[in-house]
Each structure stands twice: as structure tokens, then as C-alpha cells.
Design goal:
six-stranded mixed beta sheet, 30% strand, three-stranded antiparallel beta sheet, 19 strands, single chain, alpha+beta, 350 residues
């Protein structure tokens, strides 16, 4: 009898605690960055649940070092959504009347920092219920770049590359040829789902327009490239042109250096000449003009003198020539001394 009573009591307690139930199952949701995530949380009440209704959403960030954060709360018929700064203004109840049994929320403009486990708790005494939702934020492939790595010439080896700027892994690649035969060359088939296609011994039949599509679980993006395989260029002419260009550049550099050095020498010479000329020193007197004027004056004097007094005059006058005004030209030891001859009244004086 006691065992039966205990069983009845346990069943009553179980039924009593199960009066409030959340009908939404635990689940995982994947969304792209920038999109809106809908996190469902629907519940049912029973007549036994008579207490005030409280709804609380918690976030357990992917970083285990961070504690759980309350991101939105309904209590006392009011909504509080400014608990968590990172989600402020981006989290809202989807229903205008949560009492109707819908505690679902929207998280808008998703960021990578929004990744984590979200928990919905509903309490209406004596009933309590909770559910968890795992939210993963992925990045769509974007900024896809297609290009040729190498020289697009007949017989050459090069690569076709497809690189996304961003995108969450795993990424899937698919190459297609959009022109001519609309098919990829047979040798490329093994690489049509890889980011790089290796081209060996290229030929003109490889020319055309190609596309590369990159996809992941939340989106896709595409790029195109135009491949034009051409005959080899005239490398000898290219090399000769490069050599001529280098020689011309060297000649030009040499001329510039020569002109600069010449200009510097001229400037240096002008400075030295200007330094040697002193304005405070008067120019030297002309010795030739002094001597000529002195001799001319003596000649006029001699012309007025008679032969009788010429001898005495010639002995004394030439000894009075100032040394500072007239200097004789040095005579060579082997040459006779210079002699002056004057004629006056028909008489020659030596």
C-alpha cells in the first residue's frame, strides 16, 4: 500500500512539473554573415501554471572563456533588450504578444561574434522549461578572382587560378568553358573541381572564356577569365630592344654626370678668381709708359743744348732715372750692353 501511494505521488509530481512545455526541439542553425537568424521557441501552458510569465534568452559564446550572457528578457509585461552590448539593437521577439506562446527571437545583421549556443528559458510557476539552439555564422564566398599564372603562348605551361577573397570552409569549385566547344579539354577533367588547373603544352584549341563557381553551405560566387593562346613572341627582338634601351640610358646618365661636373668646375674657378682680386690694392703703374715719358723729356732737353754742355749733361742725367719708375731689361752675359743714340743739331751722341 505504501509503495502504491508513493508511485501515485511521483506520477503526480511528474505531471505537475510537465505542465509547461516547450514544443520546439533542440536544433542547429547555419546562417550567412549579414543575414537574419530566426531562433524558434514556442511553448504551451496548463491551467496549473498560475505564476507570472518570465522569458529569458541566454547566449553561451563559442569562446569558452566568456560567461553566459542574458541577451533579452520578458518580465512583468515588459521587454528588456539592452543587457548584451554586442547584440544591442539586433535582437527582438518575433511575436508582439509573447503570452500567446511564442518566445521566438530574430538576430539581425549576423556577425561572426554571434556564433554560440542560445538557450530559451520559460517560467510560469510552477512550470519551467528550456531549449537550446546552436547558431553557426558562415561567410559566403565573395570577391572571386580568376587569372592566368604564366605566359599564354603555344607550347608553354601555365595555370588557371580561381581565388575567393573570403568564404567559410569547406569550399567547392566548378570550372566550365563558356565558348567554342562548351567543354573543358580532356586533360583538365581531373582538375575541374579544384581551385587550380594546370595547363601543359598549350595549344590554340584551349583559347576561350572560362568560368569558376565557388560555393559553400550558405552561398556562392563566380568569376570569368578569357584565355587567348598565341604564337611565341619574337624574343630576340625583345632582347635587342632591351639592350638598346639600356645603352641609351647609360649614355644619358653619362652626359648628365659630365655636365654636372663641368658646371661644378666652372663655379669653383669663378670663386677662386673672385677671391684673388683684392679691391684695396691699386693697379701697378705701367713701367713702359714711365720710361718712355722720361726718355722723351730728356730728348727734348738734349735738343735745346749745345755740343759744349752735352758731355756734362749726359753723365749726370742718366744717373738720375728713378729706379721705381724705370728698370732696365736684364742683359744676357754674352750680349753687349744696350746703347742709346740721340741726334741733335747733326751731332750723334752715344
Amino acid at each position: 500500500m505504501a509503495l502504491l501511494l508513493r508511485f501515485v505521488l511521483l506520477c503526480g509530481v511528474a505531471d505537475f512539473t510537465r505542465s509547461l512545455s516547450i514544443t520546439t526541439p533542440d536544433q542547429m542553425i547555419e546562417k550567412a554573415k549579414g543575414e537574419t537568424a530566426y531562433l524558434p521557441c514556442k511553448f504551451t501552458l496548463s491551467p496549473e501554471d498560475q505564476g507570472p510569465l518570465d522569458i529569458e534568452w541566454l547566449l553561451s559564446p563559442a569562446d569558452n572563456q566568456k560567461v553566459d550572457q542574458v541577451i533579452i528578457l520578458y518580465s512583468g509585461d515588459k521587454i528588456y533588450d539592452d543587457y548584451y552590448q554586442d547584440l544591442k539593437g539586433r535582437v527582438h521577439f518575433t511575436s508582439s504578444d509573447v503570452k500567446s506562446g511564442d518566445a521566438s527571437i530574430n538576430v539581425t545583421n549576423l556577425r561572426l561574434s554571434d556564433i554560440g549556443t542560445y538557450q530559451c528559458k520559460v517560467k510560469k510557476a510552477p512550470g519551467v522549461g528550456n531549449k537550446k539552439i546552436q547558431l553557426t555564422v558562415l561567410v559566403k564566398p565573395s570577391g572571386i578572382r580568376c587569372y592566368v599564372d604564366g605566359s599564354e603562348e603555344i607550347g608553354n605551361d601555365f595555370k588557371l587560378k580561381c581565388e575567393p577573397k573570403e568564404g567559410s570552409l569547406p569550399l567547392n569549385y566548378e570550372w566550365q568553358k563558356l565558348s567554342n566547344s562548351q567543354k573543358l579539354p580532356t586533360s583538365w577533367l581531373s582538375e575541374m573541381n579544384s581551385p587550380v588547373i594546370s595547363v601543359k603544352n598549350a595549344s590554340t584549341e584551349y583559347s576561350g572564356t572560362y568560368s569558376c563557381t565557388v560555393t559553400n553551405r550558405v552561398g556562392s560566387d563566380q568569376c570569368q577569365l578569357h584565355l587567348n593562346v598565341v604564337p611565341p613572341s619574337n624574343r630576340a627582338g625583345t632582347i635587342a630592344g632591351a639592350i638598346v634601351g639600356i645603352l641609351l640610358a647609360l649614355v644619358l646618365i653619362g652626359l648628365i654626370v659630365f655636365c654636372c661636373r663641368k658646371k661644378r668646375r666652372e663655379e669653383k674657378y669663378e670663386k677662386e678668381v673672385h677671391h684673388d682680386i683684392r679691391e684695396d690694392v691699386p693697379p701697378p703703374k705701367s713701367r713702359t709708359s714711365t720710361a718712355r715719358s722720361y726718355i722723351g723729356s730728356n730728348h727734348s732737353s738734349l735738343g735745346s743744348m749745345s755740343p759744349s754742355n752735352m758731355e756734362g749733361y749726359s753723365k749726370t742725367q742718366y744717373n738720375q732715372v728713378p729706379s721705381e719708375d724705370f728698370e732696365r731689361t736684364p742683359q744676357s752675359p754674352t750680349l753687349p750692353p744696350a746703347k742709346f743714340k740721340f741726334k741733335t743739331d747733326g751731332i750723334t751722341v752715344v
